[in-house]
Design brief:
Blueprint (H helix, E strand, L loop, with lengths): L2 E5 L10 E5 L9 H7 L5 E3 L8 E5 L11 H10 L6 E5 L5 H12 L22 E5 L5 H26 L7 H12 L5 E6 L1 H6 L3 H7 L7 E8 L6 E12 L8 H4 L7 H16 L4 E11 L10 E4 L5 E4 L6 H15 L5 E6 L4 H6 L4 E5 L2 H14 L3 E3 L17 E2 L8 H10 L8 E5 L5 E4 L2 E4 L4 H14 L1
Parallel strand pairs: 1-6, 2-4, 2-5, 5-6, 9-10, 9-13, 12-16, 13-17, 14-15
Antiparallel strand pairs: 3-4, 7-8, 8-10, 11-12, 14-17, 18-19
Helix pairs in contact: 3-4, 4-9, 7-10, 10-13, 12-14
Length: 476
């Protein structure tokens, strides 16, 4: 874990630290080097002649007040890709609150690298960021201490989700996710796990989840994580898609489209990370997180296009595309969760569900679909506050024809291949009773961080969900 402390003067720092500040910071030393670097109107960075620091990076003022394009993080990513010091000194004397949240999560997330999976020979001599000194004014101390603790807890949840999602799918099977979640949750007395194996999934009539998972040698599982921060009160429910690998089933993907499909379980991983964050913050709430876990594989028992499966709420679904499996496991998990807690305060599901949402919104915005206007507004506000934003797509009866089936109550994909993301949400809304406020987050664009042609898990939208939860607690 990366440690941190707040400081009020650069004299409190250790030698050979990496100083990162805005060019106009009044607490910087008055030296010829600093004054020369201040004259530049772009990033100024040097490792030479900057003693007692190992490196000094001065960034333009505008970067520290730009929550929209993440220009500060964009400038820091290449700088910290190969750190020169294990200690970072960061100037937080004058920074936008949203940018500060983004910055702290970015810094704390430096605790995970793909090399940590120990699947390739690592350079053990390489430097890792291990400590953050935050340069602030004395009047900022109390507020910043609370914010640092909160954002580190959020980052820790993101780290747990990222580490799990980055594991290759030959190891990260549905059973592995259950075992790992149980191990992580065992550190928190307020968390308890309830796991359903394939036999119990059949017994509880989760026919959609079973249809997706029955073709794989690794059977499906459903994991419910319960958090009891208080003895009584409304339960908030979160559901995550956990397809540990998605071949597309008999509707086989092409090779290029299959390459990142180990990340099709990021929704479930993020539900786990969210619960770990909530437990670390000791929030006085009740929560149930549901992970719908399956591998969408090809095999003698794989679901076939045109087959019909029945969900645990009794609705039947024609499976006209086996590569639209995520909405099937989500539908069953949403119905199961709503049966367990029919008076839930709200239910939010998240999934790397459709490539169409990436075409619509790109890689920065979470797609939001809901018919509950207060929940829509609350998620919008939370996203703007924490810098993990959502963008609403339509969800109303005009999509009804997109899920009509001649043989079943519903079909899982529209025959006209239109409004793919919203049509999936329209299917899902049938599985949450109208008495429970429900929202669907399509995180296909945001669940991964993409750079230089490579993809790794991002841990989003855990920041959004924690910010929304905290505000909802204040409103309750």
């Amino acid at each position: 874990m990366i440690t941190w402390q707040l400081i009020h003067s650069l004299t409190e720092t250790q030698p050979e630290s990496h100083l990162i500040a805005r060019a106009s910071c009044p607490l910087l030393p008055d030296t010829p080097l600093i004054n020369e670097m201040r004259q530049q109107d772009k990033t100024a960075d040097t490792c030479f002649g900057c003693a007692p620091f190992a490196r000094i990076t001065l960034l333009p003022e505008a970067f520290w007040h730009d929550p929209l394009t993440e220009s500060l993080l964009g400038a820091l990513r290449p700088v910290l890709a190969e750190p020169v010091s294990s200690r970072v000194v960061i100037d937080v004397t004058d920074i936008n609150d949203t940018v500060l949240m983004q910055l702290l999560r970015f810094l704390f997330n430096q605790a995970h690298r793909l090399s940590d999976l120990q699947l390739k020979k690592a350079d053990h001599a390489s430097v890792r960021v291990c400590h953050i000194d935050a340069l602030c004014l004395p009047a900022q101390q109390k507020r910043l201490e609370a914010l640092f603790r909160q954002q580190q807890a959020i980052a820790n949840g993101m780290l747990a989700a990222r580490r799990l999602a980055d594991i290759p799918s030959d190891r990260c099977t549905p059973q592995f996710v259950v075992t790992e979640a149980q191990r992580l949750c065992s550190d928190y007395p307020a968390l308890r796990c309830e796991a359903l194996d394939e036999k119990q999934i059949i017994e509880q009539q989760l026919g959609l989840l079973h249809a997706v998972g029955k073709g794989a040698t690794c059977p499906p599982h459903l994991l419910a994580i319960h958090y009891d921060g208080i003895a009584e009160g409304p339960v908030r429910c979160y559901v995550g898609k956990g397809i540990t690998f998605d071949t597309g089933g008999l509707w086989l993907k092409e090779g290029a489209g299959m390459y990142t499909m180990k990340y099709d379980m990021c929704g479930a991983a993020n539900v786990l990370g969210l619960l770990l964050t909530v437990a670390e913050l000791h929030l006085p709430v009740r929560i149930m997180g549901v992970l719908a876990l399956a591998e969408n594989a090809i095999g003698p028992d794989a679901m076939q296009p045109g087959s019909v499966a029945r969900a645990c709420n009794g609705l039947t679904v024609e499976i006209n595309n086996t590569d639209a499996e995520g909405r099937l496991v989500l539908a069953d998990a949403i119905a199961w969760a709503s049966q367990r807690h029919p008076q839930a305060r709200y239910l939010i599901d998240m999934a790397t569900l459709t490539g169409a949402v990436v075409k619509a919104l790109g890689y920065e915005l979470n797609g939001l679909m809901t018919q509950d206007e207060p929940l829509r507004q609350a998620l919008n506000v939370a996203g703007k506050q924490c810098g993990d934003e959502v963008w609403s797509l339509p969800l109303d009866a005009r999509l009804k024809k997109q899920t009509e089936s001649a043989i079943a109550d519903l079909c899982n994909t529209p025959g006209n291949n239109a409004a793919i993301s919203a049509s999936a949400a329209w299917l899902l809304h049938h599985f949450c009773p109208p008495t429970i406020p429900w929202a669907h987050l399509d995180i296909s664009g945001t669940a991964l961080w993409r750079e230089n042609g490579k993809s790794v898990a991002s841990g989003r939208p855990i920041p959004l969900l924690v910010e929304h939860l905290l505000e909802d607690m204040r409103q309750a």
